[in-house]
Q: What sequence folds into this?
């Protein structure tokens, strides 16, 4: 499976977001409770879906069932500007009934269907065990060269999201 740099960057951010939501300060497992709360904030969260999709995509955690692994693997190989239409993934993804209201809220947004595609890809990566692939020396060198740019882009996205949250009245997450 070939994962595009875009999804490689988002994967670690998505995993970190779920990890941050999993436990409270006392170490109690509260992921489900926090996800329910996030889902209630969807009208507000839609404003973050383009800047920080990983922070919004968690609302769909455990809401997808993937029926076409090849379609999902193909999706992960794409960059954000070449993602397939959400409707074209209908045969590859089954949605849990509780997701329908969230989907309707998102479909009203200009980037909503694009975001749904990204959210599905992130959840697919989260549930897919990693299979190390043999890479050539050229691939490894290309990956190392792209890491600096990818890290800078991820940092810029995270900083923009943090700035936006502060502007909305939230404390900066350190």
A:
């Amino acid at each position: 499976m070939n994962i595009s740099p875009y999804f490689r960057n988002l994967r670690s951010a998505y995993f970190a977001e779920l990890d941050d939501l999993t436990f409270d300060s006392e170490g109690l497992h509260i992921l489900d409770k926090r996800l329910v709360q996030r889902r209630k904030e969807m009208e507000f969260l839609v404003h973050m879906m383009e800047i920080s999709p990983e922070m919004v995509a968690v609302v769909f955690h455990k809401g997808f069932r993937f029926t076409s692994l090849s379609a999902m693997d193909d999706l992960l190989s794409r960059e954000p500007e070449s993602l397939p239409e959400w409707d074209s993934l209908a045969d590859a993804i089954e949605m849990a009934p509780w997701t329908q209201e969230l989907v309707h809220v998102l479909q009203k947004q200009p980037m909503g269907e694009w975001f749904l595609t990204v959210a599905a890809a992130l959840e697919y990566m989260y549930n897919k065990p990693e299979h190390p692939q043999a890479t050539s020396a050229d691939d490894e060198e290309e990956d190392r060269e792209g890491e600096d740019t990818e890290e800078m882009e991820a940092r810029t996205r995270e900083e923009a999201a943090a700035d936006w949250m502060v502007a909305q009245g939230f404390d900066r997450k350190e």
